[in-house]
Amino acid sequence: MGLFTRQIDVQLRMRTLNLYSLLLWFIQPIVFSAVGMILSNAAGNPAPDLVYTVIGGGIMGMWSGLVFTSTYDIRSDRREGTLEIIVGSPTSLRKIEAIRTFANVAAGSISLIAAFLVAVLIYKFPLSQADLLSAVISLLVILFGLWCMGVFLANLMVWSRLSTSIVEFIEMPVALLAGFMYPIRILPAWMQEISSVFPIRWGLETLRTAIQGPALNQETLIKWAISIGISLIIYLLSRLLDRKVHDLIRVSGELSSI
Amino acid sequence: MEIQEGCVISPGRVNLLGEHVDYNEGVVLPAAIDRSVKIQFTRRKDRLVQLAALDLDHQCKFNLFDLDRKVDSNGNPLPSWALYPAGVLWMLQQRGYAVSGFNASYRSDIPIGAGLSSSAAVEVGFAVVCQVLGGWQIDRLTLARICQAAEINYAGVNCGLMDQFACASGVPDHLLMFDTRTYESRPIPLPQNTTLVIADSTIRRSLINSAYNDRRKDCDTAVKFYQTIYPQVNSLRDLSPAQFKAHAHHLPDEVWRHALHVVEEIERVERAIQYLDSGDAEQFGKLMFETHNSLRDLFEVSCRELDILVDLAHGFDGCLGARLTGAGFGGCTINLVRKDRVDEFIEFLKTAYQRETGLQANIFRTHPSRGASLKSSSAYRSSAASIPKVYAIDAHELSKTFVTRHGFWRRTVKSTVAVDKISFSVEKGELFGLLGPNGAGKTTTVKMLSTLLLPTSGTISILGKDIQRDTNEIRRHIGFTFGGARGLYGRLTAVENLRYFAELYALPPEATRRRIPELLEIVGLEGRGNDRVETFSSGMQQRLHLARALLHDPDLIFLDEPTVGIDPVGARELRTTIKQLIGHGKTILLTTHYMAEADELCDRIAIIKQGHIIAMDTPASLKKKISSDSIIEVKVEAANLPAVQNTLSRLDSLAAVSYSENNFVKGISITTPQPGAVIELLSPLLTQNVIQNLEVRNQTLEDVYISLIKGDIE
Amino acid sequence: MRAVIRIIRLYFIQAWFSYRSLFAWSTPFNYFASKLGFPFFSMLLFMFMGKYAGFTDPTFIIIGNILLLPALNGVSGISQTVGGERQFGALSYLLASPAPRAPLFLGRAFFHILDGFITLLVALPAAVIFLGMDVTRINLGLVFICVLTLCITTNGIGFIMGTVTLLSRDGWMITSTLSIAFYMLIGVNFPVENLPAFLQWVAYGLPMTRGIMAARLALNGADWTRIAPLISGEILIGLLYIMIGYASFRFVERASIRSGLLDTI
Q1: What is the pLDDT of residues A127-156, one digit of tens each?
Q2: Which fold has domain B208-366?
């Protein structure tokens, strides 16, 4: 427990709450939401789809923030030489990554909450018909999915300093495929197939349904189950990876390289 | 091969003639005897010394770093018996000799307090133990003088040099003529067909010290008086009996009598040597009787029991000479007896003495013996055979190859061998140094040992655990720091950093609270705990690193260049901390570029070059690798160079001379086994200002290191 | 003359080394990841956003995103280079050197611009081939001029952001987030006229806005007289930004010597 609180404390102060993630959490949603709204306006729609533009922007910020902090954490630890000390301690890196990612995900959810508030307070998005229970459960399912993906990414980051570029190949494609800013049906069929492997895609669908009306039905339950199932598979993969990575980095000596 | 254990025998001594002249620059005639102190010793890898005085049934353990304070490892004052061995270790360290930790037990068959120098025997014996373990060379006179200085300065007992010299330099079947003015000595054979018999009166007086000091003072008074008459007089040695008697009436009665004994005794020894050289045992014996009378009547240090013993001996036909020996007021007599009558003499003296005094004298024959020496030794510890040893570090055939890829399109794979099949072990409690140029593989080795890198091949066992299998268990018991500013969170305070890392080592919260202020004090950062680490100087960060490495109280600590970037004062403080850690039984592996630091701290050193260990030994033994020659550095103005060269050409094979260029000043470096001779040759040039500067130094570890790295020596 | 040669030499040496040091560890995978990763996938994202809004032809968005490539390259390149030097302590040595500042500073951008230019020359035909972009009316010479202009004028913004990187160790975070705003402001994904009025002011005050407009026109076959005002406006704004960038760099440099700013990494 001490490890958990101490780690969260240090993580939030040192890493998560840095300028960049703050900017990502707020600027990124604003830009993407604005582009979405202006495009909608330019196309002659009477009003933008707030679920996809505003809330989607919030999720976008949260996702980018998570990807960035996961990368930034390890990069900084590598650069500051603390990665070596952490790996050389009896506490496993996996445990530390799990706690750190938790802090990152929890802090990143403010981006989503802010987007919600903007939608409700500024654009007067009607919440009267929303299924709040399902929405909250969906949100938790999304957060769990993000956490599992974050842990996986962090493990990838420890592996090698080169893996930073993998992130470049992950951040936007996931945003593209998981349907943050538009419904999945917009995508070509083959892309829709790929998007199924992202747990957040399923959570997002139920979240949107829940915001617009009653959602606690069989379909929603199945989507939650799929999302949680995929999340768990990703988590298990990262545990397998962790073992491998721990040996690999000690062979390559990339623990301390910058 | 380094000696791990052994036995040193250090004899007592008896003085045949020249009593109380050793502090008056006279010549004495002692002999080492066959009664001795036997010291069994085993090397320790830490800096502790554990002593057991078997005769006293006392034990004592102290830290070599705490000798200044005269306390044992628990901080209690050292017992008085331990002051003699401890003093020698202290003095040796003061003089720059490497002293390693050891366990020793000793037993003596020299009667204590009998004037046979049992304490000098202990001192010299332990000096020899240190010499054997330290692997250094020293001549016997220097050894004796160190022991004398130890007794005076550490044990607080005023003494002359004769006792230690005799214990150290004894020659079998010979007396030693030892000139306490010039320190010249030569062995003189004991007259043929004679034997020495020592008769211990068993009388012990506690006043010996004060009487001894009074008489020393009287001698000084006399010297001062005679200096007013004969300005050239420095000691009583400078006065002939005639000169002395001519003015003696001016002196107080007691001073006069005491000093007269000394003056006459000095003259007596001169005659005695002539008799001995001509083998005249009878005449020599007579002088012994004369000395006793003088000690009794003039110097007034005899007592009834001693007089009885001497009188009885005088009356025995076959006893050539007898006198009290040692400081007096009790103790022993020394008797020169015809070989064929020894048994009778002993029997006679025993009975007669008991009849006269009611006391049982301890009477025994003795032979002049060899001075203190190593009787037996072993490069291996006998215990190693029965108990498998658990090393702190045991690396076997360790290799590490890094594979790097280069090129943009065509990837070329390049493998770099950083460490190539090195093997070494570090014992628990040892401070082991890893030296080598940049890129030699030191840090790679340390990282492999501290679980941060996996070796390409070879095995490592840390504290008996396998590095691949028990990684986490090992991590709990090791601490490590890598030099430089990295490895700390700059935006957090020192305390926050430590708390964070304490969590990683799963320290209980109360232990963390207690430990952090403790550690900050140990590393000298008290009061700075709540400052951000980014505001710290590199030295402070380095010290915080050490605190971090010590958080979980590890048994084994890896310090990779711990003093790099620290100012001299800070570095010295850090070294003191490192010594204290060793004192607390920690094992330390240290890498450093500072040779003096390695020399000061390390028990053993491995020098690593291009991934290979090219030398591994104690600093002292490493230094011996390039001979024990001294180096004389001379600075000469260019114009004066020919004159100096001319002088130096007379040195022939005595020395190796090399020249170094500078614009105006030429440097000459002379490596020689006989620095005295070279200096004697050069000193006229120094007084004539031909030579600007002359400096003598010993070979340092740096000399060895550089020769090894350059490949000059194997 | 020798001084000029020296400055030119310095410019290219600075250019090459700063570029090399950023990509020294690079592999083809890494290189293409950084080239293609973010810009390509964000272009796709915007395309799908446009599709969801109701646009059937993605050409406008594709062209806009491709024309943004050199800008993204230059801005992130310069700020990452300066940020990296700051991190590893090389900046102090650089600033303490007697070398003239302008080539020292400007040199940092050269290869990023060149790199961006080549990327653009590859990306445009690729868009024609793979995305079926209509270029039947293209005025190739003018497109070339527009692209070259854009590559140079983005430097100004790059230098200003580089200065921000100098000011704070987290400066690169600000600059790379702010460059996201390009997607909204300079007519990349939709015409500037669709912006609210005050943002249009901002858009016209930035380099690249006019350049991108000009390039779009040239792709549609416009002649020189139509794009000349846009190009000259673009060049003026671009030079202004370069001067502001250089001046602020000198200012920060002097301020840092007084305050020791650069030592706190």
Answers
A1: 788 888 998 999 999 999 999 998 888 887
A2: Alpha-Beta Plaits (3.30.70)
Look at residues A150, A74, A76, A165 and name the one whose alpha carbon lies nearest to residue A109: A150
Using CA atoms, how far apart are residues C103 and C17, in angstroms rounded to an integer? 13
Residue A13: its chain B contacts at CB < 8 A?
491-492
First to last CA, chain A: 32
Architecture of domain B5-187: 2-Layer Sandwich (3.30)
CB contact under 8 A, A182 and C34: no
Question: Looking at chain A, which residue has its C-alpha nearest residue C26?
Answer: A162
- Percent of chain B at pLDDT exceeding 90: 24
Strand order in the sheet with B27-28: B27-28, B174-179, B185-189
Total number of domains in chain C = 1
Catalytic residue among B72, B163, B200, B218: B163
Contact B509/A at CB under 8 A: yes
Q: B527 vs chain A: nearest CA distance in angstroms?
A: 22
Q: What is the mean pLDDT of chain A?
A: 83
Q: Which of A14, A17, A18, A38 to mutate to test the interface with C (most CBs of C within 10 A)?
A: A38
Please give the residue range of the domain that contains residue C185. 2-263
| C16-45 pLDDT per residue, tens | 766 666 554 455 666 666 666 777 888 888
**C208 backbone φψ class: left, alpha, beta (φ>0; ψ -120 to 50):** left
State the average pLDDT for chain B.
Answer: 85
pLDDT of residue B385: 35
Q: Is B629 a catalytic residue?
A: no
Predicted ipTM of the assembly: 0.85
pLDDT tens digits for range A205-257: 998 889 888 888 899 999 999 999 999 999 999 888 887 877 877 877 666 55
Instruction: Give A27-79 pLDDT, tens digit per residue.
Output: 888 888 888 888 888 888 887 788 888 888 888 888 888 887 777 777 778 77
Instruction: Please give, rounded to a whole number of angstroms, the shortest distance from the CA of C141 to a CA of chain A.
Output: 31
The predicted structure's pLDDT at residue C179: 77
Fold of B629-698: Alpha-Beta Plaits (3.30.70)
| Interface with B, mutate which of C19, C20, C26, C27 (most B CBs under 10 A) | C27
| Chain A residues in contact with C53 (beta carbon < 8 A) | 36, 39-40, 42-43, 45
pLDDT value at C265 more than 50: no
Interface touch A14/B452, C-beta < 8 Å: no
Q: Does the beta-carbon distance from C53 to A52 stay under 8 Å?
A: no
**To the nearest whole angstrom, how far is the Cα of B490 from the nearest Cα of chain C?**
10
What residues 10-49 of chain C have any CB closer than 8 A to a CB of chain B? 26-28, 31
The answer, yes or no, to whether residue B9 has pLDDT greater than 70, is yes
- The whole-angstrom distance between B536's CA and the closest CA on chain C is 12
Burial letters C128-153, b for 16+ CB under 10 A, else e: eeeeebebeebbeebbebbbebbbbb
Mutate to test the interface with C, among A176, A194, A258 (most CBs of C within 10 A): A176
So what's the pLDDT on residue B266?
Answer: 92
**CATH code matching the domain that covers B393-623, chosen among 1.20.5.420, 3.30.540.10, 3.40.50.300, 3.30.470.20:** 3.40.50.300
Does residue A11 register a pLDDT over 80? Answer: no
Contact A89 B475 (CB under 8 A): yes
